[in-house]
Amino acid sequence: LACFPDRRPRPNLVFDPLELPAAQAGAAYEATITVSQNVTPVYWMKVVEGALPDGLTFEYNENDNFAKIVGTPTSAGTFKFAVGAACRGTSVNGQTGQMEYGIEVK
Q1: Rounded to two decimals, what is the model's pTM?
Q2: Per-residue pLDDT tens for 34-83?
Q3: Cα 72 to Cα 37: distance, rounded to the nearest angstrom
Q4: How far apart are CA 80 and CA 56, in angstroms?
Q5: Is the CB of residue 14 less than 8 Å from the CB of residue 37?
Q6: CA distances, 85 to each of 29, 34, 42, 53, 97 (Å)
Q7: 40 with 13: CB under 8 angstroms?
Q8: Distance of alpha carbon 58 from alpha carbon 68, whole angstroms
Q9: Could you tell me which of 17, 100, 103 has the C-alpha nearest to residue 66?
């Protein structure tokens, strides 16, 4: 009996929420982004394009299926960025995906 990797197509990763709440310059902010439909544990999540507003950081712990954006934005504007995620590939094809977001700081 031989073991072969499972090469069946995997579902797309789903990012939630679809939109992030607005922020207020000088006020504490926190938002959570969750990934679902993963077959294996999420290996990483990070900002892959663009940048967060100054004063905000992206916090992720390996193997969690969520990340947090936290901090206090320092200036107003609309900030666009993409969050990417990848899952471990063990005996299945690892899943990857990304979602574009924006945060309006008032």
Answers
A1: 0.86
A2: 999 998 889 899 999 999 999 999 999 988 999 999 999 999 999 999 99
A3: 31
A4: 13
A5: yes
A6: 22, 10, 7, 20, 6
A7: no
A8: 6
A9: 17
